[in-house]
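Why does residue order matter? Because the sequence determines the fold. Keep that principle in mind as you read this record.
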Amino acid sequence: MPADQPTSRGIWTVIGASSAGTLIEWYDFYIFGSLATVLAGAFFPKGDDLVAMLATLATFATGFIVRPFGAVVFGRIGDVVGRKHAFLVTLLIMGGATMAIGALPTYEQVGILAPTLLLLLRLLQGLALGGEYGGAAIYVAEHAPANRRGFYTSFIQTTATLGLFASLGVIMLCRTQMGDDAFREWGWRIPFLLSIILVVFSYIIRRRLDESPVFSQMKAQGKASKQPIRESFGNRANLRIVLLALFGATMGQGVVWYTGQFYALYYLQTQLKLDYVLSNQIVAVAILCATPFFVVFGALSDRIGRKPLMMLGCLLAVLTWIPIYQQMTAAANAANGPDSFMLTFLIFLQVLYVTLVYGPIAAFLVEMFPTRIRYTSLSLPYHIGNGVFGGLVPLVGLWAVNHFNNPYAGLWYPMLIASITLVVGTLCIKEKNKVPLDV
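Structure:
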């Protein structure tokens, strides 16, 4: 490890600055998902609620699908120019696109132009997020000592859930203060517009950071890659690692994550017909209670390894999802009204699985790839796994439930993907939690 590795106080400054920006990125990104039912009425023709909801989820999914392209673009910048520069640019793009969504005209005002502009801004959000996570995770990991890499990077992992929690909190506050009608008419814009304040604050913090010591030393020694995309995907050995990261880790982690948070929320609202505010409160409380376990399992992975925890999360999800959702259905239809405590506990279990697979994964992915191509190589499988396989969970789930007329059909897709990851990860990936990062 380079001699200029930061002190204990210095590493917390790095974590704080990286986490603050990443939390805001996720807050911006999750607002769209959390407001899907409201946006469906604002940006698509009225008359068929299912078609409008599917169109909104499809627009939401495009932001996930485009993330791998952002990973390649900003990954190259991160490997050639530097980690810090890449995640400063992504922050500004993400914030600008989110604020612009809050100012868009509705379908009633401009017709088809409204969903078209919404789609374009959603694509910009996805591109920016494609470069954000990898930069923040790598930046922290390259500052951290090998024996605490899982612990320190796990704080980055909490930002995704905290971003979702923050978005739900802002939305519920606005909705309860102004009433449902006013919120649906114009109040939904406020959470989007408010994000620009958070983005400016985060940008100021991030500008004060120095480049990571591992990257700086590598560049000073003339070892930086000039063509990280070609090295990552044109070299057979590196390409094999990229594919193992995708099939043996990130795509399973992605579906576990989005099932436990997004699909659970949609299931409460669209299948169980729970009140909008109540369903968001249930999910928010479950997420808040489970969030500390990102750090718990990140720290534990420094001792027993990343892979055992991640594979356990996939296994538990596959074995228990259907029973959990059956119990959710029963709790929502209890004789005395919805059993909020039981519903919160059942979603807490699902988010606990998320913490098992997601808490250790930043350190896990950083350790898989060499420094000279780490940003590019790590970002692509991460965002294909999360953006494509994970991001399609709500859309595929809603379609499957309606197509097969089975309330649990939406779980078949994530169960299949998590099973593939369980097999590939268990059999084909080696543990590297004690290995120092190369220069």
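The chain is about 80% helix and 0% strand.
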